[in-house]
Prior knowledge:
Order of helices and strands of chain A: HHHHEHEHEHHEEHEHEHEHEHEHEE
CATH topology of the largest domain in chain A: Rossmann fold
Oligomer: homodimer
Radius of gyration of chain A: 26 Å
Largest interface: A-B, 57 and 56 residues
CATH class of the largest domain in chain A: Alpha Beta
Shape of chain A: elongated
CATH superfamily of the largest domain in chain A: Response regulator
Structural class of chain A: alpha/beta
Low-confidence stretches of chain A: none
Strand order of the largest sheet of chain A: 2-1-3-4-5-11
Helix content of chain A: 40-55%
CATH architecture of the largest domain in chain A: 3-Layer(aba) Sandwich
Mean pLDDT of chain A: 93
Strand content of chain A: 15-25%
Amino acid sequence: MLKQKITLKHIAKELDVSISTVSKALKNSEEISRDTKDRIQAFAKLYNYKPNNIAISLKNKRTKNIGVIIPDIVHHFFTTVVRGIEKYANAQGYNVIVCLSDESFDKEVINMEMLANGSIDGFIMSLSAGTEKKKDFNHLKEVTEQGIPLVLFDRVTNEIRCDKVVIDDILGAYLATEKLLKEGRKKIALLTTEDFFSVSKNRNLGYEKALRDFGLVVEEKYILRLPFMDIDEDKISDFLNSIVPDAVLSVNEIFGIHCMRVLQRKGLKVPEDVSIIGFTDGLLARHANPSITSIAQHGEKMGETAARMLIERVEREDESNYRTEIIQPTIITRESTLNF
Amino acid sequence: MLKQKITLKHIAKELDVSISTVSKALKNSEEISRDTKDRIQAFAKLYNYKPNNIAISLKNKRTKNIGVIIPDIVHHFFTTVVRGIEKYANAQGYNVIVCLSDESFDKEVINMEMLANGSIDGFIMSLSAGTEKKKDFNHLKEVTEQGIPLVLFDRVTNEIRCDKVVIDDILGAYLATEKLLKEGRKKIALLTTEDFFSVSKNRNLGYEKALRDFGLVVEEKYILRLPFMDIDEDKISDFLNSIVPDAVLSVNEIFGIHCMRVLQRKGLKVPEDVSIIGFTDGLLARHANPSITSIAQHGEKMGETAARMLIERVEREDESNYRTEIIQPTIITRESTLNF
DNA sequence: TTGTACGCGTTATCAC
DNA sequence: GTGATAACGCGTACAA
């Protein structure tokens, strides 16, 4: 039996009072007599009245929904960010609408447009690979010009004026490289992706800076640039044959763990012969054998921070002083590096 | 400069026609003259008019939002399900609101109530551990009695009449155990969780059935029950010392991979000395060394199926013939088992 | 061909 | 103390 959702109107009719009286009574307004309030409140409770969110949204022009657009959800880092966002947002009474751009510019645009027509109070997003490659940010510009708050995280752009949350990728790579250098490693390979990714670019910079600071030169032959998210152990194998490094820094977990596999199959021991440090402290790094020393990006904290910035802006509705919060990466030392 | 979102009213005023004329013109109604339509459409395009979703939701009593409540998002299986849901839902013009119950009964209830007041057209969910333990399904009952469609997946209950999507966990475990038996393995250990989980229970059953079908007896000493998601390599190590199996079936990836680590540290070789098969074909299984033969649960397909069932019910609005779709698990053969 | 009126569910203002 | 009215943005049956 379908128990129709009850509205103010139903209650009013049933109790033979006006809609506005019901509304006020349920808000415990002083205007209404104790007696009427009791009757109405009891009735409402009995029928489990709950105000309709949509109607309230229309009236208040506030949905209490946050739109989150991420490139991929089957990716531990984004997943932790979503969790951080959820956590903070829920605590503030907001829901989270998650959309996936699937690394595609077009899907990113479609998702934004879908949500921008009143469904959400603001956006939290990380640019898709397609968007970073294309460098077309008009959809973001439109949204911000409409006055919809936007917080970018991790994969950001300078083209758009809005709040941002990033981690200091240069520092992260620097710390990792420095650790390897302090272990006495001299031939440190870098596994990275093509350069159009803001994050990879910064990680490469940190790696190079650390080498220089320790008086070494950056040699291109120690750098392997793999296509985005493409795992090709043969390429890694060829690379490792050509240079025989004593340490490897990988800009992501996947490259790192496959590099370790290749090394192990070549009969090299990790960390005795080769140390490995990987970016993004995810499941793979944690559960690998040996477990991999990682740069933690603190995704959950990033998510919380982004949600906090967004909700503050939504509720304050001023459009000034855009800030960029920088999260400090930390090294999680595990078994793939030497201990000191 | 804040470019206020434009409404029908603005256009009407600007072009000095009535709101309904504008509305009709934008829908290309035959009632309106070519001339007026052109004027209005041009103006709307210029100012990038888009109807307000909230107003439409209120009018239609349809939000085109789907509420998804899952126990945990940092869990590869759920993540793939969400992706499947997203994919299908987006293609049908629906948005996905994701809420996390964090394995807690209370949070599950709160999330449901938040969304049930008009924010969504239907729910897709998987029960939290807390709910399965408590066996309290009143929140689900209330929602279905209100006529809000609900699809349960993976962790389901017989207490609620609604559409369901599950995988045949008994079969999955049976297939895995059978494969190990056919390899000639005789001492097959089972790593599982406590019994209140519907999925673990079924996996245990499949394991036991296969052993019996092959004329072996189920020995309790070959079964290790670990607390939910608690990784304790010492317990695993003690267990493996006490029985020395020649194969291991794990009801999840994490237990499986840690079991492999422990075995490897004991100097045993996988798969030469011990074969391993694990449930849930996630990142860990795929990228481990050796990679782990897994039971694929086809999360993405499950998500798609759930979304299809939900949207069908939302759009047909009848409340009969609840179905349970059963997804067939398959074995992904990798390096942790012997080849035939 | 265009416009008026009403309803979706709620709240706020003002009148009685 | 209570109720009528308008408004949020849209769509549509009906009237002009």
